[in-house]
Amino acid sequence: MISFRSLFVASRLWFSLIILVLLFVAAYAFPLLFPLVKVVFAVFMVLIGLDFWLLFFSKSQPAGLAFFARREVPERLSNGDENPLTIYLENRYSFRTDVEVVDEIPFQFQRRDVLFRARLNPRETQAIRYELRPTRRGEYNFGAVNVFVLSQLGLLKRRYQFEQGKMVAVYPSFLQMRQFELLAATNRLTEVGVKRIRRIGHSMEFEQVRPYSTGDDVRTINWKATSRRSDSQGASLMINAFQDERSQPVYCLIDKGRVMQSPFEGLTLLDYAINASLVLSNIALMKQDRAGVLTFSDHIGQLLPAVRRTGQMLKILELLYRQKTRFLESDYESLYASVRAHIRQRSLLLLFTNFETMSGMQRQLPYLRRLAKDHLLLVIFFENTELRALIDQPATDTEHIYMKTIGEKFSFEKRQIVKELGQYGIQTILTAPQNLTANTVNKYLELKSRGMI
């Protein structure tokens, strides 16, 4: 059964109707043109009928199957990354078609430009590939794929609607995690800003006694083992071999308070912290350490103990997926009490938060000092990139000079916070949001190389 709801007028038809109207108007002024106009009108109606027949009554395929389309979308999307999607088109008509594809993407993207055009020969298939960048975690619902088909006459359009409604969850940036994992496996982390860090000294974890090789540190020679081997098998130096200390607990403490709601390039600071925590946890597990997560705001959220076992990364991913900002001031006293109660072994604590002023940091300093007394604490907070751009601009008038002065004051306070925390042995990272992941991984590798964890 033909549904006229699927019939649309093409732009070429509107143009032709305008020409016909103008010809009829001209025929009133010049009556000799009227017979010619009637012939043109009759031919025009025949062409419309032919176009309608081609689109709806073509014998090439059974009714309703003359064109096919489907959307291929990943099972889950990666937050803050460009995620690939594909729309497959198949022309089952016996003639060439021009198509317009309108994909009903989730409303969260706030886009109305997902329109594609293609030309398909008879029995041809094509793939349209495009990308979507979500900026919020949660559930995204895709609608139908609408395809408007035109024949070579191009007077009418037939709409095919393929109901492919699907709910897709947007998770923390697992694509970024995989990128770092791949680069780490191939020793190419420098491509994403991770520095090569030379090991300072030796770790305290003894591995074995082995024969000396060219390039080994002579300070590791085991003279007792060398003398025993010299007596039994001839002269040969023996050295103590050490390995990286393993199974060190690494916890990401994620602040979900109002200070983490600030946006940057579509993502909140909380999302940047979550994405960096996911990457750092994966790197820690690759380095044979144990990874855990603790979230907090005005009260303690969720705690995932640091372990190194199969499925730990999946648990971390699911935990981070459910985190939301709470618009209240974070309670650092509860954070300290929870860490003291549940994290008994000395651990590396990476605290993702944001301090805008010195007074804001000093209110929490007593609790940070207590955390640093029992653990190696690394406080990670954010540089205001908009403020930096304002400071770097040359001043043009008095108002601009005033704004730059205020900006310099806030920027200076950020640097003072770093110095103040350093006086109490608290490690810090002050970073722009886009550099957060690389800088965090750099600091973690640096602390391991110095034997601090």
TrEMBL record:
Residues 208-379 form the DUF58 domain. Keywords: Membrane, Transmembrane, Transmembrane helix. This is DUF58 domain-containing protein. The chain crosses the membrane at residues 39-57. InterPro entries: DUF58 (IPR002881). Coiled coil: none annotated. It comes from the Bacteria. The lineage of its organism: Bacteria, Pseudomonadati, Bacteroidota, Cytophagia, Cytophagales.
